[in-house]
Amino acid sequence: MGEPKGVNTAPPIEESTQVFPKADGTISYWDHPSFKSAHHLPNGKYRPFRSSLQAREWLERSGQYEEIVTLLKVIGDAFCVSEAQLRRYMRKLQSFSQTSKLLEQLRTNDFVQRHQCWLIFKEDAGERKPSNLFVLGTAGHLFIKSSYPRQEFQKPDYWLENSLAAQRYVAANEIRCTGVETKKIRQWAWHPAVGGHPNYKKPLAVLETKENEVTPALQLLIERVQMRQPFLDYLRRRLKTYEYLLNRYGQIKVEGFSRKVAQAVLIHVSSVSMADFIQQQLRPHEYSYDVIYMIDEWFEETRELATSVAASQPEGVIRINFSGF
Asked: How many domains does the chain have?
């Protein structure tokens, strides 16, 4: 007797995500294709505030106004941040345990939201389990947005179905947080307009390093690429856009950055194998401007930005010691 129609007749599913492991065979957590995150409600009482007035009145009665507003602003400025990163951002103001305690307190009224992370396949269970992620909750977003109306802050609903973005911002925040700790970054902006026109697609971020006795100040236009995205076509378009802007204006105008300093494009990747693949496919060194790679795999080994950088050269991805960091 033959099989019923439609049973086992579907074509096999093809692998759609190309994986770029580290040298030890593992995959970076913050670029893992199996990564998921979800909002985790606090245990016990949950009384979310739904107006900026309600949030402000509670804050003014809290007795911790300055500490709480500082913490909310730090989270808002980071967009999406791991608890470990948040403790580092706040370390000059309070202890790690004080930061964690305050975060738990602020979850009750939805000033902040905690997102739990996991990998969806059991075979990935041996990978490192990072700390939870934090974003502004509804009350926190309403309060901070009313306090800083001209600044961009991400609404909490954005993160509910956007694990890919959560990975992207936490990975980029490692550069930002380390730069703050080492005092090597003069300025940082998320999604600034470029080219003097809002229609040009914005980079993930732009940073400007401080000048030192060895290296002049440098603006880096950051493009974070991820395995779960069709990143080659995306990067190709971005590199061509920067080439066009430089050829036309001699400088890529960046919103909020007034100083005219040297510029380069920083391609932020999770592994050396990913950088090698991009180098082979796109040959970034052939553009008229400098392209460098920031590689998480190396940063995880050294915890230093300066030794986690590679130059795009005709001979390939060449590791350098970047004194700007």
From this structure: 2
Percent helix, strand, coil in the chain, to 5, is: 40, 20, 40
Q: Report the pLDDT value the prediction gives residue 4, as an integer from 0 to 100.
A: 41
Query: Which residues are CB-neighbours of 300 under 8 A, at least 6 positions away?
Result: 28
Take residue 226 and report the two structure tokens written for it: 């991820």
Average pLDDT score over the chain: 92
- CATH code, domain with 47: 1.10.10
Crossing angle for the helix pair 163-182 and 65-78, nearest 10 degrees?
120
DSSP E strands, 80-160: 81-82, 112-119, 133-136
**In sequence order, which residues have a C-beta less than 8 Å from that of residue 307 and are 6 or more positions away?**
298, 319, 321, 322
Report the pLDDT value the prediction gives residue 3, as an integer from 0 to 100: 41
Tokens for 249? 């204006």
Give the global pTM: 0.92
For the record, the structure tokens of 88 come out as 């580092």
Provide the domain limits for residue 235: 183-320
For residue 259, the number of C-alpha atoms closer than 13 Å in the C-beta half-sphere is 14
